[in-house]
Amino acid sequence: MKKIVSFVFALSLAVAVWGQNPMERTMEAFPTGKETHILCQEACAKLQNNPALAPELVTEALLSGNRQYSNAVLTYADETAGAKTLVKAIKKVYPTLTDAAKADVLYWIGRNKLTALQKFVDEGVNAKEATESSMAAVFAAVQMGGKHNQELLDQCIQSGSPMAQEIKRLRGQVSGDDDDSTRNELRDQK
């Protein structure tokens, strides 16, 4: 996702440098719709000019319901302000998010190994049913590692949690339907 967002931003800058208005050209080359692309460009520009806006922009993006936009803003905020500047905003907004938005935040927590948000990972891993966010919490726990997460995941496997199979897959203990190399690449990110 980071590569796509960076590519989109670089391409739009290149078009602007050549003297064309990137907003007027067709958006066929981009993985998002025109409106989302414009939102992402605006957010990137705001964050480059003022990284202190990161918590406010991330909160707005997560509540928007637009996953491409919210993931792009999380990426831009990481690059400009740093992940740790978002912890307070994420703590405040997380309980109000949809399951899909929670999943995106949990993947982001895992990639950034944000132990300050461990509570949300614990809640997701201990979920009573397998949802997108609970799967993302397992991913985050595996990414973050450490004694606490190891014990949490072991406990889920022993208790017969609905997350047990996903935990085993991400740990490489069983092969899943997906390509093992892709799973390993995701597990080993950042």
Strand content: under 5%
Distance between the termini: 13 Å
Largest sheet: none
Helix content: 55-70%
Average pLDDT level: 80
Provide the number of structural domains: 2
The backbone outline, from C-alpha atoms, is elongated
How many beta-strand segments? 0
Structural class call reads mainly alpha
Poorly predicted regions are 13-30, 175-180
Secondary-structure element string: HHHHHHHHHHH
Q: In angstroms, what is the radius of gyration?
A: 18 Å
Count of DSSP-assigned helices: 11
Can you summarize this structure?
The protein has 190 residues and is mainly alpha-helical. The chain has helices at 2-17, 34-49, 54-64, 67-80, 87-93, 99-112, 118-125, 132-144, 146-159, 164-170, 180-187. Helices cover 67% and strands 0% of the residues.
Describe it for me?
The model is unreliable at 13-30 and 175-180 (pLDDT under 50). The protein is an all-alpha fold. The chain has helices at 2-17, 34-49, 54-64, 67-80, 87-93, 99-112, 118-125, 132-144, 146-159, 164-170, 180-187. Helix 3 (54-64) runs antiparallel to helix 4 (67-80). Helices cover 67% and strands 0% of the residues. The protein folds into two domains: 1-88; 98-190, no CATH class. It is elongated, with a radius of gyration of 18 Å.
